Every structure is written in structure tokens, then in C-alpha cells.
Amino acid sequence: MPVPKKRTSRSRRGMRRSHHALRAPAAAACPECGSPVAPHRVCPACGKYKGKQIIGQEEA
Fold first, then answer.
1. How far apart are CA 34 and CA 48, in angstroms?
2. CA–CA gap between residue 46 and residue 31 (Å, rounded)
3. SS3 of residue 19 by DSSP
4. How many CB atoms lie within 10 A of CB 43?
5. Which residues contact 56 (CB under 8 A, 6 or more apart)?
6. For residue 14, what is the enclosing H or E element?
7. Cα torsion at 33, 39, 44, 48 (round to 10°)?
8. Which of 1, 13, 24, 33 has the fewest CB atoms nearer than 10 Å to its CB?
9. Is the pLDDT of residue 13 over 70?
10. pTM score over 0.70
């Protein structure tokens, strides 16, 4: 079995892990009601997307 010949330094270990950080999820304000909503998703508060009523259609 291959085994590392030298110990990996803290610097090299950190450089390898530099891309492992997590990013916060993106959030935008809904143009209709102003509540936070993920981009390109229907607003859970008002049910609109791009100005159109998608969820919870109002009956007249």
C-alpha cells in the first residue's frame, strides 16, 4: 500500500481545504411584498413570480 513519505504541513493542508468553505444561500427581496425569497423561485408569502399569481389563485 502506498503511504505518504512526508507529513503534510499545515500550510499545504490549509491550501487544499481553501475551497471547502460554505456560502450563505442567496436571498432577494420579493418585488410584490418585500419578503426574502430565493432567486428564480415563487414567493412563499404572496405566491407570485415575475408579477404573475402562481400559488393561491384568487377566486372572483
1. 11
2. 10
3. helix
4. 21
5. 47
6. helix 10-16
7. 60
8. 1
9. yes
10. no
